[in-house]
UniProtKB/TrEMBL annotation:
InterPro entries: DUF222, HNH_nuc. It comes from Microbacterium oleivorans. Keywords: Endonuclease, Hydrolase, Nuclease. GO terms for molecular function: endonuclease activity. Residues 335-387 form the HNH nuclease domain. Gene3D superfamilies: 1.10.30.50. It comes from the Bacteria. This is HNH endonuclease. The keyword Nuclease applies. The lineage of its organism: Bacteria, Bacillati, Actinomycetota, Actinomycetes, Micrococcales.
């Protein structure tokens, strides 16, 4: 195991970093105060337009004209277009008037602007009468976590609080699937496909795997193919080219791994990690399922994936079921790995949302230094944060219940609780003749 690098310049370096962190905190508080003040002023502008525009003209609403006029006046100060200011006035009123508890928590420093945006974006999927209840739960549950980490969980919460089932709403939304072309500049355009999330994720994942196969082959070969030796495309460029090739030709036109046929790229299949509650799997619940690291998907799609996959296995978080909890070898057994994927869901570094299936299982206490291969000493880390743990002064220890406590080079600690389980079991009285759940 490689030892951590020594901190440059010792105490002077540490003091400099500590000063920068303190300055960032101070600036952050001042910026937040200014942002909240601006939202309140813009919301007040919208209310003023309401007050002045109550009567109606025969041809246009006075309110709209007043709002346009105020927006144009404010736009001159903000150096924005009046349309942009009018849009921001509407957004400000939604936040200030619709989600006041979130604003108060932001002002108190409990959450940041990103949290507020995530709460508002998810809450707008609910009827307005449920906003107060939703934001109260959201603030309490998600305080202390980074905005990108909470976004997916807040969406799941909002979907479960909605008076209509997620399955019903997804069916309506799926009717709007489409492909549209947006002309751009310099001979370029954007081709936008609106698809069910799991389909879009699968397409993107397969394109990524194919692009990596081409780039890996290109990097390994130093001669023998003019295509390989002259190909200097980035991953994004290869992915876009693969997308066009597959749609227009049916097979990759630049499959650098091929022999005489379409080559190994044609065998690549997308991987999608989905957490399906048992009640949803059996059809007793039509709530959303969690596409780990991304967003909710509809229950029908989740059931189809569970039915058709060849690696589906039931998973129970219960010591009486025989789940492997430790092994003498360094290698993590497949059963333990599946358990950890369900527990961790994503990289366990604070704020990271890389799905567990894209991460490495790390020994919290290094195996080479005596750390055991057991559930209480294992956690998923993406390659970036695995390397940080190995080669920088960041330290981590695992507490009871899979909680990770990270310590920064400055001595700051960050608790990374185990994600909220996607499946929860509650005891129920058994009745004679009841069918088995599976």
């Amino acid at each position: 195991m490689t030892e951590a690098m020594e901190t440059p310049d010792g105490e002077a370096y540490t003091a400099a970093v500590a000063g920068i962190v303190a300055d960032v905190e101070d600036v952050g508080r001042r910026i937040a105060a200014g942002q909240i003040a601006e939202l309140r002023v813009l919301a007040a502008a919208g209310r003023l337009a309401d007050e002045q525009g109550a009567p109606r003209n025969a041809r246009v609403q006075v309110h709209d004209m007043v709002l346009r006029s105020i927006s144009a006046e404010v736009a001159g100060v903000m150096r924005l277009t009046d349309r942009a200011v009018q849009r921001r006035i509407g957004e400000a009123r939604t936040i200030i008037e619709g989600f006041p508890a979130s604003v108060a928590a932001w002002e108190a420093g409990r959450i940041v602007r990103g949290h507020v945006k995530a709460i508002v974006d998810a809450g707008l999927n609910l009827p307005a009468k449920l906003w107060a209840e939703f934001e109260a739960i959201a603030i309490e549950r998600r305080e202390g976590e980074t905005p990108n980490r909470v976004r997916g969980e807040l969406e799941i919460l909002a979907h479960r609080m909605h008076p209509r089932t997620f399955a019903e709403r997804h069916e309506e939304a799926a009717a709007g699937r489409c492909v549209r072309l947006m002309p751009g500049r310099d001979g370029m355009s954007e081709l936008i496909a609106t698809l069910p999330t799991v389909i879009a994720e699968g397409i993107h994942d397969r394109l990524t795997q194919q692009a990596r196969a081409i780039i890996d082959t290109r990097d390994e070969r130093s001669a023998g193919s003019d295509v390989v030796t002259t190909d200097a495309r980035s991953t994004d460029q290869v992915r876009a080219d693969m997308f066009a090739d597959l749609l227009l030709a049916g097979t990759p036109a630049l499959d650098d791994t091929r022999d005489t046929t379409a080559g190994p790229l044609g065998a690549i299949r997308a991987r999608v990690q989905v957490l399906v509650p048992a009640a949803t799997l059996t059809g007793h619940d039509d709530g959303p399922c969690d596409l780990t690291g991304r967003s909710p998907i509809d229950p029908a799609t989740a059931r189809t994936l569970a039915r058709d996959t060849r690696i589906w296995e039931r998973l129970f978080h219960d010591p009486t079921t025989g789940v492997t909890v430790s092994t003498d070898s360094y290698r993590v057994p497949s059963g333990m790995r599946r358990f950890l994927q369900a527990r961790d869901q994503h990289c366990r570094f604070p704020g990271c949302r890389v799905a567990a299936i894209r991460c490495e299982v790390d020994h919290t206490h290094d195996h080479a230094l005596g750390g055991k291969t057991e559930l209480s000493n294992l956690a998923h880390l993406c390659q970036r944060h695995h390397s940080m743990k190995q080669f920088t002064a960041w330290r981590v220890r695992q507490l009871q219940g899979g909680v990770l406590e990270w310590t920064s080079p400055l001595g700051r600690t960050y608790r990374e609780d185990a994600p909220t389980p996607a499946v929860a079991f509650t005891p129920a009285a058994a009745h004679p003749g009841d069918p088995a759940p599976f």
